[in-house]
């Protein structure tokens, strides 16, 4: 089975070499590509990435231009996904961050859930028994916990972690993302995609993870991202219940 890892990066010079090396070590004997989407890093990340591409490591680099002030991580993931769906017959898609928060050593754990068809979507959840979160400031821990509780109330209690971007899914679930327009290309993209998977009754399985808070490099998350996310969540909830209602009507009238 062919695996495509979608990796959005912006100014991750201190992390990228270690991350790629650890991914390569974790995926020995697997058929995979790392699709890196950079939005104009200015700290030397791009030089390193060009070097990797020249060395013919399993890397495809997409270079975009950052057009918004806030984080465009969602848009980067989306563009990487569109490229991967159009350019090869990948079976398993992985989303992960470029700041070493998501440990490459857990890649096979998520990949095998999809490979064995135990689920359509697998999520590394920070909030399961057995999970661990280290090096994360208290403030971020509390915000993340509260946001997830609110999202559980709005959408589904089946999911414990809506905000961790360490996710694995099969081709059908990938195609659901590009099937109709996405409204948010900011970090709330993760929640929008999750609502779509819930709407289409994808089989979602979470597994325990060790999340390591960012040690190196600067966070790209701005206060504006949090404000935008708060408004977006209510918009997404309205859309979710509207489409859920429409799907129910269509199914019942068949
Ligand atoms: N291409 C692209 N990548 C981005 C952008 N913003 C963030 N990223 C990347 O997306 C991933 C997640 O971003 P982070 O800044 O770590 O966000 P976070 O994990 O919510 O916040 P921290 O707790 O500070 O780590 C990292 O690999 C970033 O480099 C962006 O605008 N464009
Ligand atoms: Mg991070």
Task: Explain what this protein looks like in three dimensions.
With 254 residues, the chain is α/β, with parallel strands linked by helices. The chain is built from eight helices and nine strands. It has helices at residues 16-26, 45-54, 73-87, 107-115, 138-154, 171-179, 189-199, 223-252, and strands spanning 2-9, 31-38, 59-63, 92-95, 121-125, 132-134, 167-170, 204-208, 210-212. The strands form two sheets. The protein has a seven-stranded mixed β-sheet, sandwiched between helices. The protein has a two-stranded parallel ribbon with strand order 6-9. Strand 2 (31-38), helix 2 and strand 3 (59-63) form a beta-alpha-beta unit. Helix 3 (73-87) packs across helix 6. The protein is globular and about 55 Å long. The model has no long low-confidence stretch (mean pLDDT 93). Residues 8-10, 12, 37-39, 66, 71-73, 76, 97-99, 101, 140, 214, 219-221 line the site of guanosine-5'-triphosphate.
Task: Describe the structure concisely.
The chain is of the alpha/beta class and 254 residues long.
How would the blueprint of this fold be written?
Elements: E1 2-9, H1 16-26, E2 31-38, H2 45-54, E3 59-63, H3 73-87, E4 92-95, H4 107-115, E5 121-125, E6 132-134, H5 138-154, E7 167-170, H6 171-179, H7 189-199, E8 204-208, E9 210-212, H8 223-252
Parallel strand pairs: 1-2, 1-4, 2-3, 5-8, 6-9
Antiparallel strand pairs: 4-7, 5-7
Helix pairs in contact: 3-6, 7-8
Bound molecules: guanosine-5'-triphosphate and magnesium ion.
Features of the shown structure:
254 residues, 8 helices, single chain, alpha/beta, binds magnesium ion, binds guanosine-5'-triphosphate, 9 strands, two-stranded parallel ribbon, seven-stranded mixed sheet, 44% helix
